[in-house]
Amino acid sequence: MSKISKFFKGGGSAASKGRGAPSPQEALARLRETEEMLSKKQEYLETRIERELAVARQHGTKNKRAALQALKRKKRYEKQLNQIDGTLSTIEFQREALENSHTNTEVLKNMGYAAQAMKKVHENMDLNKIDDLMQDITEQQDVAQEISDAISNRATFGDEFDEDELMAELEELEQEELNKGMRDVRLPSVPSTSLPSCPGKMPACHFTFLMIKPYLSTRKRTEDEDEMKKLAAWAS
C-alpha cells in the first residue's frame, strides 16, 4: 500500500471518528467546487502559456537567454495543465459514480417504501378466503349462464311426442277414409241383355255413362264424379 493510500485511509478513519460521513449531496457539492476551481486554474495556465510564447518570440535570437527562460516557464505551465486535466478526469469520474450511487440509493429506498406499503396492504388478505371468493364468483357465473340459456331456449311445451309416430297415425287415418269412400261406392248391376249398339257416331264410353247414370243416387253424384269416369273408362 502506498503512502498516499495510507494517508487517506488514516485521515478518513480520524475524520470518521470525529464526525459522521458526509451526505452524498455534500460530497457532490465539494466535487463540483473542486472542478470549478481547477477549471479556473486551467484558464490561468493557458493564458500564461500564450504569454510566455509571446515573450520567446519577442526576444528570439536577439536575447537568447530571455527567450529560453520564457520557453522553460511555458513547459512548466504545460506540465501543470496536463496534471490538472488528469485530476479533472478523475474528479469527474468520481462525481459521476457518486451521482449514480446516490440515484441507486434513492431508487432502492423508494422501492423499499413501496414494498412496505404492499406488505401492509396484504396483511389483511387471506389467500384461502380469496380462493373461496373466486370459486363463488365462478359458480355464480355458471348459474347465470344456465339461467340465460334456459330463458333463450324456445319453449317445447307439447313437443314431447314422437313426430314419426304422429305421421304414421295420420297416414292410417287417411287410409281408413280412403277405404271407407271406396266401400260407399255402389256399382250398378250388369244388365242381362246385351247393350244396343251406339247410334250414329256416339262414342261407346259416353253411351255407357248415359246408361248407368239413372242408377246412381242423387247424394253421391257430385262426390263420385271421379269414380264414374273410372267406371266409364272400364266399360269402354
TrEMBL record:
- Membrane topology listed for this record: Peripheral membrane protein
User: Where in the cell?
Assistant: Cytoplasm, Cytosol; Late endosome membrane
Query: Entry's InterPro entries?
Result: Snf7_fam (IPR005024)
Where composition is biased (Low complexity), the residues are: 1-21
Q: Which Pfam families has this protein been placed in? A: Snf7
Which superkingdom heads the taxonomic lineage of this protein's source?
A: Eukaryota
Designated name of the protein = CHM4C protein
Region Disordered: which residues?
1-25
Q: Which UniProt keywords apply?
A: Coiled coil, Cytoplasm, Endosome, Membrane, Protein transport, Transport
Which processes are annotated in GO (biological process)? Answer: late endosome to vacuole transport via multivesicular body sorting pathway; protein transport; vesicle budding from membrane
- According to its record, what are the GO cellular component terms? cytoplasmic side of plasma membrane; cytosol; ESCRT III complex; late endosome membrane; multivesicular body
Family, similarity comment: Belongs to the SNF7 family.
